[in-house]
Each structure stands twice: as structure tokens, then as C-alpha cells.
Write a structure and sequence with these properties.
The protein has 9 helices and 12 strands. It has 303 residues and is an alpha+beta fold. The strands form 2 sheets. The chain has an 8-stranded mixed sheet with strand order 4-3-2-6-5-1-11-12.
Length: 303
């Protein structure tokens, strides 16, 4: 048994504001990422390989808020964050405040596998990237016309909680491989118009990303401050491990319980060692998909 799930962000996403052509473009992008990860699992590659491969495809797709399509900060720059975790060893790697790394998820993996650290930030992280031969690009590479327009609307006061898709967003993947090992990976451009070096939950192990074979693997998306305050990813995994509750029960209790009570909005994807996959959100929509070795495959945006 093996399986993979992905997400491409969650938020207020009115169905009547998306054309059929736009919806198809998003679904095709999700499908390409899903297939990239699933293909590796089918070839008996590790869950870590699969999660990174899926996230890399999403980072390269300008539709999603990570890598190529990252939103812009107040100064018109892309600032990128990513993390991943190996459920077998509890090894983890994270990077934050990147401005020149084409695929942040790859650098996060290098931090995990080739450094004694868990998190590197800013110029130091990019200095480490150079020592590892990671591809660096101009910040202009990340700046798309759509994101520039979103920033201009934000600076003009047009982006509100009713238009959260433009303000927030993340991509991620969780996977179970044939050996029974779990992994989680998350990557983001953060919030449109962010200031002061703001960092959300995506690169924070235990908040936006967590994996433990004894529990589950989780990748989150949404308003990161709330995910950090409630340690969403770790809390879900801890409930599965210690309380022995079903994965869906753990996800619902955290996402639609304490975090929502605080005002948090977003979603998570999660998978356990039995291959149960949960994709849940308390927002209007979440770009998501899953594929299992038992023949289940789906991509969706709305409920």
C-alpha cells in the first residue's frame, strides 16, 4: 500500500469567480504534481522523494503561491519558505526568507541531509545553497504579472478577508511509501504585502509540517499565525499517536475546533501508516488531490 496527497492552498474562493477554463488549469496543475509523486512511489521510491517531487512541480507552476508563482511582499519581492520532515527518522529541514532559490523544497532537503541544522534563513540559507549546487535565480523569476497586480490591489486596500486566495496560499504534499514510511513537505510565498520579515507556519516544524511514523504526516495551508499558535500539524499527529483516534477525528478536532475558535482559516492534508488520507478545510475551497495504490485518484477545489 502506498499513497500521496497534495494541496495548493486554501481560502475564500467563490466558485462564481472562477471560470471553467481557470478551474481546469488548476486541476491540471494539481494532477501533474500528484502524478509526479505517485510515479516515484510506484517505483518503490521513498515517501520523502515523492513528497519533494510533488511540491517541486507546484513550485514551478505560476498558478500556485510557492516558487515561480509566489506572492510579493510589500517591497515587490518574493520571499520563500519551505520545510519537510521524514516520519521514519524524525529528521527535518526548513528554510525561510529566500529570495533567489528556485526550488525552496530542495534546499530544505539539503538542510536536513547535509547540515547539522533544522532551519536556515535568509542570506545564510542562500550561502549554504551555493555550497550545495542549488539553482539560484534572480528574484524577477518569481514575479508574475498576476502577483504584481495582486500586490497593487493589496496596497490599494482591495485585498480583504473576503478575497483570501490572493492574500494567502501554500503548497504541500504528504506521502506513504511501500515500506510504510511517512513524509510531509510544504512550500510557500507567504502573504501578499507582508512586511518586517514575516514568517508563517509553512517552515515551522510542528505548525505547518510534521511527520512521524507513529502518528501521521501533515501539511497545512491557511492563515499561518493561527497554525503556529495551535501547533496544528504536531497536534494532529500527537492525537493519532497518543489518543489512538482515527486520523479524520484528529484533523477535525484541531482544524475545526481550537484553531477555528481562535479565528483561524485554512486546511490540512494528512495521511497515516494504514493509508488513510484526509483532506479537510474550514474555508470555502482548497486546491487538493490524492492518489493511492488501490486505484483511488482525485483532484478537487470545492467540496
Amino acid at each position: 500500500m502506498f499513497a500521496i496527497a497534495i494541496h495548493g492552498g486554501a481560502g475564500t474562493l467563490a466558485r462564481d469567480q472562477m471560470s471553467a477554463a481557470q478551474e481546469r488549469e488548476y486541476l491540471d496543475g494539481l494532477g501533474a504534481a500528484l502524478d509526479a509523486g505517485y510515479e516515484l512511489l510506484a517505483r518503490s521510491r521513498s515517501s520523502l522523494d515523492a513528497a519533494v517531487a510533488a511540491v517541486r512541480v507546484l513550485e514551478d507552476n505560476p498558478l500556485f503561491n510557492a516558487g515561480r508563482g509566489a506572492v510579493l511582499n510589500r517591497d515587490g519581492m518574493a520571499e520563500l519558505d519551505a520545510s519537510l520532515m521524514d516520519g521514519r527518522t524524525l529528521a527535518a529541514g526548513a528554510v525561510s526568507g529566500l529570495k533567489h532559490v528556485r526550488n525552496p523544497i530542495e534546499l530544505a532537503r539539503m538542510v536536513m541531509e547535509r547540515s547539522p541544522h533544522v532551519m536556515l534563513v535568509g542570506s545564510g540559507a542562500e550561502e549554504f545553497a551555493r555550497t550545495q549546487g542549488i539553482e539560484l535565480v534572480s528574484n524577477e523569476y518569481f514575479r508574475t504579472a498576476a502577483r504584481q497586480q495582486q500586490l497593487e490591489r493589496h496596497l490599494g486596500g482591495a485585498v480583504s478577508r473576503e478575497n483570501e486566495l490572493e492574500a494567502f496560499g501554500t503548497v504541500g504534499a504528504v506521502a506513504l511509501d511501500a515500506a510504510g514510511n511517512l513524509a510531509a513537505a510544504t512550500s510557500t510565498g507567504g502573504m501578499t504585502g507582508k512586511r518586517w520579515g514575516r514568517v508563517g507556519d509553512s517552515p515551522i516544524i510542528g505548525a505547518g509540517t510534521y511527520a512521524n511514523n507513529a502518528g501521521c504526516a501533515v501539511s497545512a495551508t491557511g492563515h499561518g499565525e493561527y497554525f503556529i499558535r495551535t501547533a496544528v500539524a504536531h497536534d494532529i499527529c500527537a492525537r493519532v499517536e497518543y489518543l489512538k483516534v482515527p486520523l479524520a477525528t484528529a484533523v477535525d478536532a484541531v482544524l475545526n475546533g481550537r484553531m477555528k475558535q481562535l479565528g483561524g482559516n485554512g486546511g490540512v492534508i494528512a495521511i497515516d501508516q494504514r493509508g488513510e488520507v484526509v483532506l479537510d478545510f474550514n474555508s470555502e475551497g482548497m486546491f487538493r488531490g490524492l492518489a493511492t495504490s488501490e486505484g483511488r485518484r482525485e483532484v478537487a477545489i470545492y467540496r
